[in-house]
UniProtKB/TrEMBL annotation:
InterPro entries: DUF2231_TM (IPR019251), Rieske_2Fe-2S (IPR017941), Rieske_2Fe-2S_sf (IPR036922). It comes from Micromonospora lutea. Residues 180-280 form the Rieske domain. Belongs to the bacterial ring-hydroxylating dioxygenase ferredoxin component family. The lineage of its organism: Bacteria, Bacillati, Actinomycetota, Actinomycetes, Micromonosporales. Keywords: 2Fe-2S, Iron, Iron-sulfur, Metal-binding. Its cofactor is [2Fe-2S] cluster. PANTHER family: FERREDOXIN-RELATED, RIESKE DOMAIN-CONTAINING PROTEIN. This is Rieske domain-containing protein. The keyword Magnesium does not apply. The keyword Hydrolase does not apply. PROSITE patterns: RIESKE.
Length: 283
């Protein structure tokens, strides 16, 4: 399986179709509010993995009921619930997929294809059950669950091996030692400009507004973009930093995500000023 997944990651032949699909998805889901909704910005957590719980749970439950006598109606209902709920989950997944790097999109494309096969099989299973062909419906359902299971395996690879839609910057916290660390002299910090410094070996950005200074991890949680090279914008009365790679936007006074594709907040370090020197520590 490792060798197969590596081949998928390196399958540049998928890019022709993947690039076109990415443009189509971004064209259809153009409004920022729609993209943020589907990314899970309002939730502070990726929306797609939360949404897939309903179809997967329904389909697994239907498969169990198919093994029990007298449960045709309940199994049919669960098959219908799973099939219908898979559609919005797929839209959220496509929205996330369109913001990934190319090697991630290749695996994501096969993940989506496998799930599409599963969805088609479950649609056929539902049609067979509703027409009274429950034996065929059960067989198609089990085949659909197998295809969806393969898709879930690929989704796990995307998240846990390739880091898709996970907070890739939070691991930097493990590189910072305990205690307070000197960061900069207050007199050296300009007002309302991004400054990059290091805490131990971890890059952070500083933003001074009056006597208040924000110390934020510099790697964007979405794809490790350099926030220190980003643009500062005022959004809804708050100064925000915009990642120069994919446009993820975070409030500089709290780290809250304002716009995706990142669904995660950015980590802020607690600060204090001692004898005119700014210090920071682990949260």
């Amino acid at each position: 399986m490792r060798a197969l997944l590596t081949k998928i990651e390196q399958a540049s032949g998928l890019d022709r179709f993947g690039d076109r699909l990415q443009q189509a998805v971004q064209g259809v889901l153009r409004p920022q509010r729609v993209r943020d909704l589907l990314h899970g910005v309002w939730l502070g957590h990726p929306l797609h993995p939360a949404m897939v719980q309903l179809p997967v749970g329904s389909w697994i439950s239907a498969a169990v009921l198919d093994l029990m006598p007298g449960q045709r109606r309940a199994a049919t209902t669960l098959t219908a619930v799973g099939t219908l709920s898979a559609l919005p989950a797929a839209v959220a997944g496509l929205n996330d997929w369109a913001g990934l790097s190319r090697d991630q999109r290749r695996v994501g494309l096969v993940h989506a294809a496998s799930n599409s096969v599963g969805l088609a099989l479950y649609g056929a299973s539902l049609a067979a059950r509703l027409s009274g062909r429950h034996g065929l419906g059960r067989t198609l359902g089990w085949l659909g669950l197998s295809a969806a299971g393969a898709g879930a395996y690929l989704g796990g690879h995307l998240a846990y091996k390739q880091g898709a839609q996970v907070n890739v910057s939070v691991s930097d916290l493990h590189l910072i030692s305990e205690g307070w660390h000197p960061v900069a002299e207050m007199t050296s910090l300009p007002q309302r400009e991004l400054v990059t410094r290091k805490v131990d070996d971890v890059s952070v950005i500083l933003y001074r507004h009056g006597d208040e200074v924000t110390v934020m991890l510099e790697r964007c949680p979405h794809q490790s973009g350099p926030l220190g090279e980003g643009e500062v914008r005022e959004i809804d009365g708050h100064a925000c930093v915009v990642c120069p790679w994919h446009g993820s936007t975070f409030r500089l006074n709290g780290g809250e995500v304002v716009h995706g594709p990142s669904p995660n907040d950015q980590q802020i370090l607690p600060t204090r000023i001692v004898d005119g020197r700014l210090e920071a520590r682990l949260p």
